[in-house]
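As noted in the main text, all predictions were made from sequence alone. Below is one such record, for LPS-assembly lipoprotein.
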Amino acid sequence: MLLSDGTGLFRLAKALAGVALIGMLAGCQVRPLYSTPNGTEGKLASVSISEAGDRVEQQVRNDLIFLLSGGAGEPQNAVYHLEMDVTVRTVGVLNDVRDDIARSGRVTVTADYNLARADTGETVTSGKRSAIAMVDFPAQEFAKLRAIRDAENRGARELAELIRADIASALARR
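Prediction:
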């Protein structure tokens, strides 16, 4: 009688669907990327970074050192070594039609990087990342130079965060 009318069958189907959903969700595992059970924070703090060649590369390097170590500085005995090559390109994108002068642009900061084990030289991860910062070009020359430098700093900071996320992801899998 319970299953002969439509409501009993509908309730049974809902109950079975609920049990199946709970069973599927029981197999899921959610954990933070930077969790400490597998030592990802410790691994990040044991990364040394290559010396910089110019100002923007030094800015990326400084930001990465801070992000990787949590402000503690570079490690004394690094387990991993990050080799990095940073390039910067400034391009005007909006020209004033009256005098053909760029009024705004973008600064692209790009890094090729390779993270390797310090003892064996085995590559853990490598890649190429870019960050773009928009910039307005004022009429005064010094203000224009300062605006470009600020955009380079913003791009360097964003690039360091992208590289840190890549490194954390690679080290979390090890």
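The mean pLDDT is 86. The longest strand covers residues 80-96. These features were considered when defining construct boundaries for the mutagenesis experiments described in Section 2.9.
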